[in-house]
């Protein structure tokens, strides 16, 4: 029987060290220029979040997390050995692994991550939404279609969310890196396509002006580096046809005070929060209390 790590809201392992004083946080702060870049373009790439030894430890955990016969399967919110709509390609995708493995639990409380997230959310306290794994094997890794994250998240309001994408492999154009469409976070909320379906499915929802401004940029990064993006940022990734794997995890958060906007469950197995009820407690822990840091 696997213990449900969602009941523990602090570091469990030695993967990270929580700062002991306000001054200790300074090393993790983003610069004013980085924050300005994020607000102008809708994303901020190449932020170092992990050392190589930490990446190696997470990849070791990842080996068992992708096994559909592993203990603790009931703790996943979602698990797809292959979510790709193309039977010739593979896209592993899961949600909820923070409840199963100590390393993937503790990355929620990575000081470099929570400080940057707080700054990009307007210096607000940060609360956890949910995690994701996206793994594309060598030679036949599938696509993640162009989309906006918040188009799948309207069950939570107001829109004060943030996504952080972190590579567990070196990522580049060849092995299916992330792409952003700069300034597309200003386009408003678009309809949602099938996430692992037609790469270009979102195009039918765009205006002619938006199609002209659709100029994706590849986000090539060394493993252990992360990229933050706005909930309305249009992004996606192409197939991995290289000889290398492309493994990545995603941390989704929102500013403290976000509320339910649905009468249904927010994530599979999570108790229902009535519309207007604040999201907190076991499954939406407070990762960073801004009131305690200057």
Automatic annotation (TrEMBL):
Q: Which GO terms describe its molecular function?
A: 2-oxoglutarate-dependent dioxygenase activity; iron ion binding
Gene3D superfamilies listed in its UniProt record? q2cbj1_9rhob like domain (2.60.120.620)
Query: Which Pfam families has this protein been placed in?
Result: PhyH
The record, for InterPro entries, names:
Phytyl_CoA_dOase-like
What is the organism field in this record? Cyclobacterium amurskyense
Q: Does the keyword NADP apply?
A: no
Q: Which UniProt keywords apply?
A: Dioxygenase, Oxidoreductase
The protein's required cofactor(s) are namely: Fe(2+)
Origin superkingdom: Bacteria
Record's protein name: Phytanoyl-CoA dioxygenase
């Amino acid at each position: 029987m696997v213990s449900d790590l969602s009941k523990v809201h602090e570091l469990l392992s030695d993967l990270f060290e929580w700062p002991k004083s306000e001054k200790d946080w300074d090393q993790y702060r983003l610069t004013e220029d980085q924050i300005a870049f994020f607000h102008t373009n809708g994303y901020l790439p190449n932020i170092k979040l992990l050392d190589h030894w930490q990446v190696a430890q997470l990849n070791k955990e990842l080996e068992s997390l992708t096994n559909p016969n592993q203990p603790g399967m009931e703790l996943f919110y979602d698990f797809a050995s292959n979510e790709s709509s193309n039977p010739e390609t593979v896209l592993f995708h899961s949600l909820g692994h923070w409840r199963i493995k100590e390393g993937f639990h503790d990355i929620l409380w990575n000081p470099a991550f929570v400080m940057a997230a707080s700054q990009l959310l307007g210096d607000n306290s940060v609360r956890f939404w949910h995690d994701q794994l996206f793994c594309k094997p060598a030679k036949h890794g599938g696509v993640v279609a162009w989309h906006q994250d918040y188009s799948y998240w309207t069950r939570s309001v107001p829109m004060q969310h943030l996504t952080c994408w972190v590579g567990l492999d070196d990522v580049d154009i060849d092995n299916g890196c992330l792409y952003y469409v700069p300034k597309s976070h200003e386009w408003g909320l678009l309809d949602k396509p099938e996430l692992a379906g037609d790469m270009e499915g979102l195009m039918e929802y765009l205006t002619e002006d938006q199609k002209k401004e659709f100029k994706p940029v590849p986000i090539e990064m060394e493993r252990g580096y992360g990229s933050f993006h706005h909930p309305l940022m249009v992004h996606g990734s192409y197939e991995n046809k290289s000889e290398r794997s492309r493994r990545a995890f995603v941390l989704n958060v929102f500013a403290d005070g976000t509320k339910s906007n649905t009468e249904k469950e927010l994530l599979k197995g999570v108790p229902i929060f009535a519309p207007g009820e604040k999201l907190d407690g076991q499954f939406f822990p407070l990762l960073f209390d801004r009131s305690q840091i200057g």
